[in-house]
Every structure is written in structure tokens, then in C-alpha cells.
Design goal:
- There is one protein chain.
- This protein is of the alpha/beta class.
- It folds into 2 domains: 2-111, Enolase-like, domain 1; 116-333, Enolase-like C-terminal domain (TIM Barrel, Alpha-Beta Barrel).
- Helices cover 37% and strands 22% of the residues.
- It contains 12 helices and 13 strands.
- The strands form 3 sheets. The protein has an 8-stranded parallel β-sheet with strand order 4-5-6-7-8-9-10-11. Strands 1-2-3 form a 3-stranded antiparallel β-sheet. A two-stranded antiparallel ribbon has the order 12-13.
- Helix 7 (191-201) links the parallel strand 6 (180-184) and strand 7.
- Helix 1 (54-71) crosses helix 3 and helix 7 packs parallel to helix 8 (218-227).
- The longest helix has 19 residues, at 92-110.
- The radius of gyration is 19 Å and the shape is globular.
- The two termini are 22 Å apart.
- Bound molecules: magnesium ion.
- Magnesium ion binds next to loops.
- Magnesium ion is lined by residues 184, 186, 210-211, 235, 284.
């Protein structure tokens, strides 16, 4: 097996602001694993929130890829995953890049799309992705919402976390009366404040509220969940399957991301754990190239909600992925692997 990796800088269409800060260019690290005449592609989209940067990914990847080469079997994803866990305790985005590349490679070697290797069929009615509107002046958010709706996106996700939250949602609702609107506070609210906001936002037909309070405040999350008229999704509070029991009675929806779990293999574990605890499941993303978005799209048949617009927020993406139209990914057009293609 031959392995290599490369960091790619991905400028965003417009600077992306959330309650924690602003991103103008995303750095992803693309991993290639070659075996039997095929190449599998994976990518890391590191997030500072989870202790990673392109530099930490580049620093740990040689050790992770050494385990891939030592095992030498592209289908031994769980064996490789267990060995990666002994090499690096954290570094989930770096591990995700390796795991995704292995799934893509396995699909290519077996001439099957990854969703089929996951035991799923694709009917074309998988949940559509939301299009995310970052924090900005209310008029700017309304304008972006209008553009997104005109581009055919049926679901908008509004980033919140300011003293204009209700005003913003009200103005977007007026502009987009038929859109599904979900909101994400990215840990910005205090529990009592969050309950108040949920009651106010309930007037504007909001689908659900994501991560209202700090991830290290599970009691606060439970407090909001018990009092909110709107469903609650846990994102920062839900990194891996091991977090599911703690959020199970404190939210309605578990929001997984490949860059938090460490790839598709542990993402399936999280989905199974969430289902076992009666939670609905959503898959989100960071600002990501199609290499890893395509991998996440293969989970769509297992999901209730999708927020896989990472590549759609880029000015341009050198990689192509699963064909997407009006927010709907068409997995039936993936012939093998994840569906990601190099430039
Ligand atoms: Mg979120």
C-alpha cells in the first residue's frame, strides 16, 4: 500500500461567522491510499474547537498511515482503527481522513458505492441538506437566505448567538415563508436565556434548535430540553458514541460529524448508539471539501436530518463529490467508493 497526504487551502464564498469566530479560508488535508491499482481519497477538516489544525493533522498522519501500511489490508478498517487509537488518543479529523480513504478504496476495489457497503439502499428520498447562513447583519442574513431559497435549497440553517436572534429569524421567515428553518446557537446561550429564545423562536416555525448551551453543561442542556417547545439537537455535546448516554435524555437529535467521530466507521457506531437511545440522527460537517462530504453523504440513508453544505460554502472545490441539486444528494449516481473525484 502506498500513502500520501497534502494540505489544500479552500477559500470560502463569503466569510463564515458563528458564535465562536469567523473563517475565511478552510485548510483541509487530503489523504490518498493506493492499493491494487486503485486510490482511495479521504480528507481531514480540522476544527480548533476539537483541538485540531492542519498542522496537528500533518504532524500525526505519518504515524497513522504507518499503521495502515503495517496492517496492509484495505478492508481491515476496524483493525486499523484500533491501532490508530493506540497511536493517537484524540486527532479525530486526522483519523477520519484515513478511515474515509479506506472506505473509498474498499468501494473501488469491490466496485460498490460506500452506502451499499454500509448495508443501505438509495431511493432518492434521503433527507436534503440544509444551507447554512453564517452570523452577519440581519439584512445580510436575509439576503443570503433569499439567494439560497432562489437557488432551490428547501432547508436553511441560521447561525445564532447575538442579541438580534429573534429579529433575524423573524426577518428570514418573512423572506422565506415556505423554507424549513433550523437554528444553531453554537453553545452561545445560558440555559434560562435559551428557554426564552426557544419560546420566542417557536412563533416562526423553527424545525429545531441546535446546541443552545455549552457542551460542558449537560444539566443546562437537560434544563432547556425539558422546557423548550422546539426539538433540541446536540452537536458540540455529542462527539462520539461514548457521549450518547449523557445526552440521551437531554435532547431529541444527535448531530454527528465525521470530523468529531474520526470517520465513517465510528460514525456508524454513533448512529447505532443514538438509535438505541431513541434519538433522531443528523449528520453535519465542518467547512469541508467534497472528499469528506461525499463520504458523509453515503450515510444519508441512515439519517433523519442532513447538514452537509461544507463544500457548497466554498468559493470553489477542486474535488467533485456526490451530485447535489436543490440540496438533495443523488447517491444513485455514485458507482463505486464515496463518489469523490480528484481534480
Ligand atoms: Mg452545530
Amino acid at each position: 500500500m502506498r500513502t500520501r497526504f497534502e494540505t489544500v487551502s479552500l477559500p470560502l464564498d463569503v466569510p463564515f461567522e458563528i458564535a465562536r469566530g469567523t473563517t475565511e479560508t478552510a485548510e483541509n488535508v487530503v489523504v490518498e491510499i493506493e492499493h491494487g491499482g486503485e486510490t482511495g481519497y479521504g480528507a481531514a477538516a480540522p476544527a480548533r474547537r476539537y483541538g485540531e489544525t492542519a498542522a496537528t493533522v500533518e504532524a500525526v498522519l505519518p504515524e497513522l498511515l504507518a499503521e495502515v501500511e503495517a496492517v496492509g489490508d484495505p478492508h481491515a478498517r476496524r483493525t486499523i482503527g484500533a491501532r490508530m487509537a493506540t497511536v493517537a488518543r484524540a486527532n479525530p479529523a486526522a483519523k477520519a481522513a484515513v478511515d474515509i480513504a479506506l472506505w473509498d478504496l474498499a468501494g473501488k476495489l469491490l466496485s460498490e458505492p460506500v452506502y451499499r457497503l454500509l448495508g443501505c439502499s438509495a431511493g432518492g428520498n434521503e433527507p436534503p441538506t440544509s444551507f447554512t447562513i453564517g452570523l452577519d447583519e440581519t439584512e445580510t442574513m436575509v439576503e443570503r437566505a433569499r439567494e439560497a431559497v432562489e437557488s432551490g435549497y428547501p432547508v436553511l440553517k441560521l447561525k445564532l448567538g447575538t442579541d438580534r436572534d429573534v429579529e433575524t429569524v423573524s426577518a428570514v421567515r418573512e423572506t422565506a415563508p415556505d423554507a424549513t428553518i433550523r437554528v444553531d446557537a453554537n453553545e452561545a446561550w445560558a440555559p434560562k436565556e435559551a428557554v426564552g429564545k426557544c419560546h420566542e423562536l417557536d412563533e416562526y416555525d423553527v424545525e429545531f434548535v441546535e446546541q443552545p448551551v455549552a457542551a460542558d453543561d449537560p444539566d443546562g442542556l437537560g434544563y432547556v430540553y425539558e422546557r423548550s417547545p422546539l426539538p433540541i439537537a446536540a452537536d458540540e455535546s455529542c462527539r462520539t458514541a461514548a457521549d450518547v448516554p449523557a445526552i440521551a435524555d437531554r435532547c431529541d437529535i444527535a448531530n454527528l460529524k465525521l470530523m468529531k467521530t474520526g470517520g465513517l466507521t465510528p460514525a456508524v457506531e454513533l448512529i447505532d448508539a443514538a438509535r438505541a437511545h431513541g434519538l433522531a440522527v443528523m449528520c453535519g460537517c465542518m467547512i469541508e471539501t467534497n472528499v469528506s462530504i461525499a463520504a458523509a453523504a453515503n450515510l444519508l440513508p441512515l439519517l433523519d436530518y442532513a447538514d452537509l453544505d461544507g463544500s457548497l460554502l466554498l468559493e470553489s472545490d477542486p474535488y467533485t463529490g456526490v451530485p447535489v441539486s436543490s440540496g438533495r444528494f443523488d447517491l444513485r449516481r455514485v458507482d463505486r467508493g464515496t463518489g469523490a473525484r480528484p481534480p
